[in-house]
Amino acid sequence: MLTQSAEQRRVVVTGLGAVTAVGHDVASFWQALVAGESGIRRVQRFDPSPFASQMGAEVLDWEADQHMDPKEARRSDRYTHFGYVAASQAVADSGLDLEAEDGDRIGVMIGSGIGGMYTYESQLAVLAERGPRKVSPFTIPSLIGNMCSGMVAIKYGVRGPNFGLVSACATGAHAIGEAMHTIQRGDADVMIAGGSEAAITPFAYATFCAMKAMSERNDEPARASRPFDRQRDGFVMGEGAGILILESLEHARARGARIYCELAGYAASCDAFHITQPDPEGRGLLLAMSRAIGKAGLAPGDIDYINAHGTSTPYNDKFETLAIKKLFGEHASRLAVSSTKSMTGHLLGAAGGIESVIAIKTIETGTIAPTINLDEPDLPDCDLDYVPHTARAKPVRAVLSNNLGFGGQNASLVFKAM
Question: Which residues share a beta bridge with 32?
Answer without folding.
Answer: none
